[in-house]
């Protein structure tokens, strides 16, 4: 009787798109050397961007003459756990925002200054610094209510075949996760380590930069940074990463 109930519960989880156990982080596919390098703050090159973010956090900017620390506190303790909840819907605008979008919204709304462009050291640094405050905490995003349409769009994107190669995200990151491709191991496509330092970039980059690389890889349309398509996909990927610890800045190959 008990075994039967377990099977029924498992079926319900699957039909609802909920994972019974967290998926393995991309870190689990790294070599032992790279895992050690990621864990060592003195050896992880991504920490250079975190340091830059810490500097910007305390620097007054814009017409308001405010720093991030002016509202949120000098030690950024108020940011603990924030990164686990993004992407999230902004209650005022109804827009879906990732962490980069939230930082830029704070700049325009409260600091009265222009937003940072994607992939600048400033935006990558501040995003990495804020996400770092949630190191080790599990991802847990909201996908119901006002977030539901965005989540549905992201899920559809993940399973839609695209590009000249006619491949979907799911075909790589579900059907072939753990298998080798061009000397690397295909991960489950989680974003819990971003902004991350990628060896192929020799730099820190955003999750959207990685998504654009995937689009290019299957010869599909590369959407603009901050596009609704990639934001919705980010939310779906965050749901897939539910329960997986934030590792920013992770190291990826």
Automatic annotation (TrEMBL):
It holds the Pfam family SoxA-TsdA_cyt-c. This is SoxAX cytochrome complex subunit A. It is found in: Periplasm. One of its GO terms (cellular component) is cytochrome complex. Gene3D superfamilies: Cytochrome c-like domain. It comes from Oceanibaculum indicum P24. Belongs to the SoxA family. GO terms for molecular function: electron transfer activity; heme binding; metal ion binding; oxidoreductase activity, acting on a sulfur group of donors, cytochrome as acceptor; transferase activity.
């Amino acid at each position: 009787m008990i075994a039967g109930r377990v099977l029924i519960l498992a079926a319900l989880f699957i039909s609802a798109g909920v994972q019974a156990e967290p998926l393995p982080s991309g870190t689990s596919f790294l070599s032992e050397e790279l895992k050690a390098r990621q864990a060592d703050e003195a050896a992880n090159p991504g920490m250079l961007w975190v340091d830059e973010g810490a500097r910007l956090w305390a620097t007054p900017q814009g017409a308001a003459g405010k720093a991030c620390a002016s509202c949120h506190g000098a030690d950024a303790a108020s940011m603990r756990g924030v990164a686990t909840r993004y992407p999230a819907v902004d209650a005022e605008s109804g827009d879906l925002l990732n962490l980069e979008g939230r930082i830029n919204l704070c700049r325009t709304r409260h600091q009265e200054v222009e937003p940072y462009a994607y992939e600048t050291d400033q935006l990558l640094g501040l995003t990495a610094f804020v996400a770092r405050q949630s190191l080790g905490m599990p991802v847990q995003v909201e996908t119901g209510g006002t977030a539901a349409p965005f989540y549905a769009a992201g899920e559809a994107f993940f399973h839609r075949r695209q590009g000249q190669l006619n491949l979907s995200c799911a075909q790589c990151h579900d059907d072939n996760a753990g298998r080798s491709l061009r000397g690397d191991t295909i991960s489950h496509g989680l974003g819990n380590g971003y902004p991350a330092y990628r060896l192929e970039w020799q730099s820190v980059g955003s999750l959207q930069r990685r998504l654009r690389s995937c689009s290019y890889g299957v010869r599909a349309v590369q959407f603009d940074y901050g596009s609704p398509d990639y934001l919705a996909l980010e939310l779906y990927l965050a749901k897939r990463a539910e329960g997986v610890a934030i590792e920013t800045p992770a190291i990826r190959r």
